[in-house]
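A quick aside before the break. I want you to see a complete sequence-to-structure record at least once, exactly as it would be stored in a machine-readable document. Don't worry about memorizing anything.
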Amino acid sequence: MAATQKLIKVGSSVAVVIPKHLLGVRVAGAPIRVARGSRPNTFTVQVLPEKKVAPLSSREKHVLSVTDAFISRYRADLKRLKDA
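That is the input. The structure line, written in tokens, reads:
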């Protein structure tokens, strides 16, 4: 199944709308790969499998906890520093 679409300017890039009926169960945000086709002015779009995220290690959880505590404690100072 194919569809004809127009290229849309988005900032300094271009985009194309993929009709929902062509996506099937995929949702916005799914990773894709776009490649030039074998013929001029053609492209192939491949929907990639979702990557499974490994659970955080205890060390990563500790670093995240310490970072969150630091940000919570110094949030106002960090905001003033950002705006300076």
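Two observations worth writing down. The helical segments are 20-23, 58-83. The radius of gyration is 22 Å. We'll return to this after the break.
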